[in-house]
């Protein structure tokens, strides 16, 4: 997922567009992966619920 988010943000950046929600999603996923890397991505909802 991190790779996909990174590729998407690179694509956005190459067009000169701004994607603040994409950047925020990438940040949330990095935080999730740092603490819960072995869990399925769908568990990111638990991080969102606790914030």
Automatic annotation (TrEMBL):
- In this chain the 3-hydroxyisobutyrate dehydrogenase-like NAD-binding domain maps to 1-48
- Report the InterPro entries cross-referenced here: 6-PGluconate_DH-like_C_sf (IPR008927), 6PGD_dom2 (IPR013328), HIBADH-like_NADP-bd (IPR029154)
Q: Could you say which residues form the signal peptide?
A: none
Which GO MF terms does the UniProt record name? NAD binding
Q: What is this protein called?
A: 3-hydroxyisobutyrate dehydrogenase-like NAD-binding domain-containing protein
Lineage here is: Bacteria, Bacillati, Actinomycetota, Actinomycetes, Mycobacteriales
């Amino acid at each position: 997922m991190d790779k996909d988010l990174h590729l998407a943000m690179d694509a956005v950046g190459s067009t000169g567009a701004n994607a603040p929600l994409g950047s925020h999603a990438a940040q949330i996923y990095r935080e999730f992966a740092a603490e819960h890397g072995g869990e399925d991505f769908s568990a990111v909802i638990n991080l969102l619920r606790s914030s």
